[in-house]
């Protein structure tokens, strides 16, 4: 069962990548097509519904009419990544150990960027 959960999480990530890359809302069929048709339509629809329930995606009535919906991201990629990082920090375990490990694995350019952002934050810059 654990591997199923990982697979679904992976597919959720793939579908979110498709939604983020799109110029606007997409129907389930359009999402399926952009996944190179590798997933069944029903699978794509199920994952879109789960993303909607989790608040990661939103939908609107299809502009083409009918009963269909078009889906789009509830937040941009950077906001979603920051939320995931925050959830990891808020999870069980030693917060300082998590931050220490994270910063130890940063390449020098990212470490410098993080230092600059922390300075800006401390100075009250937007």
Automatic annotation (TrEMBL):
<dbReference type="InterPro" id="IPR036388">
    <property type="entry name" value="WH-like_DNA-bd_sf"/>
</dbReference>
<dbReference type="InterPro" id="IPR005650">
    <property type="entry name" value="BlaI_family"/>
</dbReference>
<dbReference type="InterPro" id="IPR036390">
    <property type="entry name" value="WH_DNA-bd_sf"/>
</dbReference>
<dbReference type="GO" id="GO:0003677">
    <property type="term" value="F:DNA binding"/>
</dbReference>
<dbReference type="GO" id="GO:0045892">
    <property type="term" value="P:negative regulation of DNA-templated transcription"/>
</dbReference>
<keyword id="KW-0805">Transcription regulation</keyword>
<protein>
    <recommendedName>
        <fullName>Transcriptional regulator</fullName>
    </recommendedName>
</protein>
<dbReference type="Pfam" id="PF03965">
    <property type="entry name" value="Penicillinase_R"/>
</dbReference>
<comment type="similarity">
    <text>Belongs to the BlaI transcriptional regulatory family.</text>
</comment>
<keyword id="KW-0238">DNA-binding</keyword>
<keyword id="KW-0804">Transcription</keyword>
């Amino acid at each position: 069962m654990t591997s199923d959960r990982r697979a679904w999480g992976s597919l959720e990530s793939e579908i979110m990548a498709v939604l983020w890359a799109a110029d606007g809302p997409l129907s389930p069929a359009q999402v399926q097509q952009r996944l190179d048709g590798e997933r069944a339509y029903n699978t794509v629809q199920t994952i879109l519904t789960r993303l909607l329930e989790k608040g990661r995606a939103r939908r609107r009535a299809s502009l083409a009419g009918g009963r269909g919906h078009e889906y789009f991201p509830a937040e941009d990629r950077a906001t979603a990544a920051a939320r995931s990082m925050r959830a990891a920090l808020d999870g069980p375990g030693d917060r300082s150990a998590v931050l220490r490990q994270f910063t130890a694995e940063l390449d020098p350019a990212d470490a410098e960027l993080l230092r600059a952002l922390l300075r800006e934050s401390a100075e009250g810059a937007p």
